[in-house]
Amino acid sequence: MTTAGVLLAAGAGRRMGRPKALVDNWLHHAVDTLATCDRVVVVLGAAAEDARDLLQGRDVDIVVAQDWASGMGASLRAGLGALTDETRCLVTLVDLPDVGADVADRILTQPDTTGVLARAAYEGVPGHPVLFGRDHWAGAMEQATGDRGARTYLRANPPVLVECGDLATGRDIDSRPEP
Asked: Dihedral, CA atoms, 19, 21, 26, 27, nearest 10 degrees?
């Protein structure tokens, strides 16, 4: 029974003005968030070579989502498709700079089973990371289209919500604040 961490970091970050994988130390922070997972898979797309360079020396597996421009669904499919023998995976996003290992570790207290489905909640609002047992991978991949990621799948298969609002806000950052 093992857990993979899957980091979705493929987007162009148009509103941010550059790929989010290249913003500040977000990529390293997100990888560190998944540090207690048995394996970490980083999904890249826009500026993949530059992001790959930032990950030199890190113990991660890199997957490039060739169709990354079609949305987060492509990244999720690439990340889940790269998994092998793991029982479950914890999926998170690169643009969650206040979500750390403490949030991931709380989600990972859920059962280590192929049927687990859980996600972080912040003051009751569902967010990331999301923990998928192997039994959910095919369905999530099938329904992962455009920028919806696994949203449709998670609506049809409600996960256990794990409150993490005492640890982080869970807000994704889409643009730089105005000066």
From this structure: 180
Domain assignment present for residue 33? The answer is: yes
The CATH number of the domain holding residue 28 is 3.90.550.10
What HEC string does the chain produce? CCEEEEEEECCCCCCCCCCHHHCCCHHHHHHHHCCCCCEEEEEEECEHHHHHHHCCCCCCEEEECCCHHHCHHHHHHHHHHCCCCCCEEEEEECCCCCCCHHHHHHHCCCCCCCCCEEEEEECCEEEEEEEEEHHHHHHHHHHCCHHHCCHHHHHHCCCEEEECCCCCCCCCCCCCCCC
Count of domains in the chain? 1
Residue 126 has which token pair?
């569902």
The per-residue pLDDT for range 97-136, each reduced to its tens digit, is 999 999 999 999 999 899 999 999 999 999 999 999 999 9
In a domain, 169, yes or no: no
- Residue 97, domain extent: 3-163
The model scores a pTM over 0.70: yes
Q: Does the structure show a pLDDT above 80 at 154?
A: yes
